[in-house]
From TrEMBL:
It is found in: Nucleus. GO terms for biological process: mRNA splicing, via spliceosome. The lineage of its organism: Eukaryota, Metazoa, Chordata, Craniata, Vertebrata. GO terms for molecular function: DNA binding. This is GCFC2 factor. Belongs to the GCF family. It comes from Ciconia maguari. The keyword Kinase does not apply. PANTHER family: GC-RICH SEQUENCE DNA-BINDING FACTOR, INTRON LARGE COMPLEX COMPONENT GCFC2. GO terms for cellular component: nucleus.
Length: 142
């Protein structure tokens, strides 16, 4: 990950400058990224934009039925309704988190809960799709 590597190098450089200057009142973890120079911020933004652009290409050659969480969960719901024994024997509830993990991670790449106008997890489409699937699962089991 280029952006985290860049930030780590920058923080190490700042720490070395503080040590050389004898700055004793610094408390680790208390520094702010506001200390980044405009050039550093430009480099960070460029690196971040590159990561986001690459993330958009991850599923570009995948059929829509296999990269849309709602569609995937609908397939599993159909399987469960038509063949409940097979569904249960396949331990699908244990497989789904691993199956959906890459799809969710791609959608969370740009998510930052520290920004002022961030989207709550509960409001994201993938979260609602999983919630609907879980509610349908509970209804059919009862």
């Amino acid at each position: 990950d280029n952006s985290s590597e860049f930030i780590t190098k920058y923080r190490t450089c700042r720490q070395q400058v503080r040590e050389c200057s004898g700055e004793a009142d610094h408390h680790e973890g208390m520094s702010s990224d506001d200390e980044l120079t405009p050039t550093d911020m430009t480099e960070f933004q460029k690196s971040k934009d590159n990561v986001l652009e690459d993330s958009r290409k991850v599923f570009e050659d995948v059929h829509a039925d296999f990269c849309d969480i709602r569609k995937i969960l609908l397939k599993f719901q159909e399987w469960k309704e038509k063949f409940p024994d097979s569904y249960c024997d396949a331990y699908i509830s244990f497989c789904l988190p691993k199956l959906l993990n890459p799809l969710i991670r791609v959608q969370l790449i740009n998510w930052n809960p520290l920004e002022q106008n961030f989207t709550e997890l509960e409001e994201m489409p993938w979260f609602r799709a999983i919630e609907e699937f879980s509610n349908a699962k509970n209804v059919s089991e009862s």
